[in-house]
Amino acid sequence: MAYKISETSCVACGTCIDECPVEAISAGDVYVIDPSKCIDCGTCAGVCPSEAIAPEE
């Protein structure tokens, strides 16, 4: 199961992108996690100041 960034909560601050050990996060107006690269470590969710990242349901 991969993590997902909420489009409504993401403020594109860039904090998560530097924390991802497998470079699964892409920058943009809203950041996106590539589920095929995500290793489900949760590091990104732990550093997100807007709590926009959560495990996919």
Written overview of the protein:
It is a single chain. The mean pLDDT is 96. The longest helix has 5 residues. The strands form two sheets. Strands 1-4 form a two-stranded antiparallel ribbon. It is α+β, with helices and mostly antiparallel strands and 57 residues long. The protein starts with a strand and ends with a strand. The chain contains two helices and four strands.
Percent strand: 15-25%
Largest sheet geometry: 2 strands, antiparallel
Shape category: globular
Strand order of the largest sheet: 1-4
SSE topology string? EHEEHE
Termini Cα gap:
8 Å
Report the radius of gyration as a whole number of Å.
10 Å
Q: What is the helix content?
A: 10-25%
Characteristic terms for this protein:
57 residues; two-stranded antiparallel sheet; globular; single chain; alpha+beta
Chart the SSEs and their pairings.
Elements: E1 3-5, H1 15-19, E2 25-26, E3 32-33, H2 43-47, E4 53-55
Antiparallel strand pairs: 1-4, 2-3
